[in-house]
Amino acid sequence: MAAHFGRRLYKGAATTAVAAVAVAALSASEAPGVTVEDQGRPTTAGATPTPDQQPPAGDTATGNSHYYTALPPLNSPSPAPSTAVGVPVTDTPSEAGIPATVLAAYKKAEAELRTAKPGCNLPWQLLAAIGKVESGHAGGGRVTADGTTITPILGPALNGVGFAHISDTDHGAYDGDSTYDRAVGPMQFIPSTWKWAGRDGNGDGKKDPNNVYDAALATGHYLCRFGWDLSDARDLRSAILSYNASQDYLNTVLSWMEYYRRGTHSIPDGTGTVPSERPGAGGTPGTSGTTTPRPSSPSVPATDRPSTPGGTGKPSTPGKPGGGTSTSPTPPPSSKPTPPPSRTDIVDHLEDVGTPKLTAMAGDAFTQKISARAETKTGKSVAKVRVRFVITGDTDAAFTGGEKVATVVTDDSGVAVAPALQAGEKTGAFTVRALVVGRTTPGLDYTATVTERAADALARTGDTPLTCVPGGEFADQVEVKATYKGAVADKVAATATLIKSADDATENTKGPYFKDADGKPVRTLTDLHTDAKGLLKLPKLYADDTTGTFLLRVTTAGGATLTVELKVAPADASPSPSPSQGESQSPDTGTDPSTAPSPSATGSSTSS
To answer: Can you give the pLDDT at residue 330?
Structure first.
């Protein structure tokens, strides 16, 4: 049996054998629970999505658009090609080679997710499997040095003819189509998903779905939503089906993932092969060895596909991937169970379930969670309904993991609990809207508020007295630490003012001062912020010729206040006593501090 694309025998037995080998490996690998269907296709226990479990086109990364359905070859890619003299590289199947830049993007995304979401356990081979079936690794690696595809890779127009109907959401910005959306780039994101899922994977400051580094990182984050652990078979299945809601897609991706786990190697960019289609899978077969992007000829959904009467052996009209087409004989209609009606058909509205007031300080996680219950018109709860939570408004708040959209299935009591919200740095109110996926019921809005970072306590980090001679500079700088409820209060706004007295917080006109950028005296500093450890170190302080005891007051957002004593006295004189509570500094007479007479030796100087 030929192993390479373009020479594969397109027989049902060949496809079945390939899948069976891949599944046998999966069964013994890191994906427990994998079984083999009677046609030999890989699946996971209970993996067949029912209508109410399948996300609609607009609720998946790709819009359930077309993909390459070819399975990996039977011969294993292990070991990797030898570099020894006289051993040809062609000993390893060409399908095991991944273009260098594309392979680097997959591995870079895995490394970043290992840090950002370590509990996800994302393997780069999963990204490679998705990249293979979505675009043939960016059309065989036709990318620039920074990972951008040389020509755009676009799926067919999602116009409802053989595919989902998704009207334009990006004004053609990503896909060049201002009428319908199309899946875009090497990982085939639809524009509405890329809007919130896009990432900057190559550090150029842009989120470009046509860049393989950006797209691979976005795919990793997309697959790692909702706390999924991809080393668990059930979570792995859920993540892949959320990318494209098709059982056939799940099987194909799992097969390629296991194939790449057995070994792969880097090949030069632009030299990769683009997969072909297997018969009956839908779409137009690709061309072996070319960089032709995804087939764009529309197919007919399984539900609208005419059957072939008389069992002539002719394939039925190609269907949308996941629509039920197969190389195996189709069982008679009587043997197929009738799928249950979608539970969204009986949902009338969403009801709040005791969600408390949603408030968090900038940078903190919200301790409260949003809960909504799907109910019928009579108030009966409805289980297993998909509820989508969408963050709207001018905010950088997000759900855990950085996403702006989260879809949750209601539990047995009909309740969907949104993932935890994480406040950003923008303060103010924003809205989280809950919607029933696939049903035009009224949305349920929740208002959340982000308040500025605050501190409730300030303390000096040292206890050295702060003294200075007239006209000199203080040897020590004032440093304070801010806390909130005993924890470090970082990035908190603060103000430092040299005040007239403990009871008069107006700015002093004499005594110690800071210097501005031009070296001129200033006695109030604004726009100060504590650092990551809650520390704030003030600039150096200077003294004019006025002697006495002075006060420096530091205040923060949240109301924390600290008053610090500063003493200015001649080097040969004892510092004047500290002012008693309630004493105020003598009013300013308008005399220039630099020309003011020195206080008497008795300490009857200007007090504060």
So the answer is: 39
